[in-house]
Amino acid sequence: MAVMEEEHFVAAPLAKPPVSRQRSAMRTGLKIGAGLLIAVALYTGVHWFVYGRFIESTDDAYLRADLVTIAPRVSGYVDQIYVTENQSVRTGQALLRIDPRNYRDSLSQQSAAVDGRIADIKALERQIEQQEAAVTQSRAQLQGAQANAAFAESEAERFKRLRDEGAETDERYAQAVNEQNQTRASALAASASLRVAERQIATLRSQLGQVRAQLESARAAANTAKANLDDTLLRASIDGRVGDDSARLGQFVQPGTRLMSIVPVAQIYLVANFKETQLRRMRIGQPARIRIDALGDGDLKGRVASFAPGTGAQFALLPPENATGNFIKIVQRVPVRLSLQVPRALEGRLLPGLSATVWIDTSPSP
Known about the structure:
single chain; about 375 residues; alpha+beta; Elongation Factor Tu (Ef-tu), domain 3; 3 domains
């Protein structure tokens, strides 16, 4: 039996590509990569030259709002609280009330004083009218007394001539002289009475002026009492939300006691503290891009509204004094206020104190 010999087949090795082809592919890849790098570098350079070099940014920025502190003008016990923490309020809405009883009684007392002074003025005006009538009467009496005195004087002269001629007796002449003296005395008395009546009018008018001054004082006191009574009801002076509420029922408060704050969340703005070296080209009205940390990647638009009148160090509790001792120059920061364009979807979500990052375009206007 013939034995068939096994045949062994060995695969021939694959042919390697030529070295020149590998180098050509590598050179092509390097050229493409270099071209991309050059394009990216060129784009980055052009972008920086045209736009990037004018962008000033900082993450030292925070939302702010001009909140209003609610504090009483009068002292007393809190007997009503009409709002709660974080509640939205409108201008003029009642917030809380201080016990008004004492102030209501004070107003009643001052109003009564005003009524009393008004009554005194009317009484004095009636007295002046009566005294004016008395002056008119005294003036008429004086005129009558003067007429009688003139008649008596003429009669005395006539009886003197008659006596000298022997037509009348000395007794009748003496009687005429006596009547003359009496009428003269009556005229003097009437004149004095007229002067007293006129001076009485002046006295009454002076008293009237004094009472009118007292009336003005009483009215001022009544107005103060009314203002105090009105101040027992504390109202919101702006639209916003209640925060930092420390008012409690039965709490005794003094004028100026901080009870709560009203935060105008609809009037939020941003303050960014830029280094002084970043302000060279910064101007009011330049556009800004703002990213609020609490909102994530969504950016807001804004504009530069104003610059602080000094660096933050100047408004610190203890400003630095660089004129003494060793000196180390520190770059200062200037607060810059920016207005925001808040989308309707974010209204009420922006709160004072939130951190932000700001980019301001300081490129020259076209």
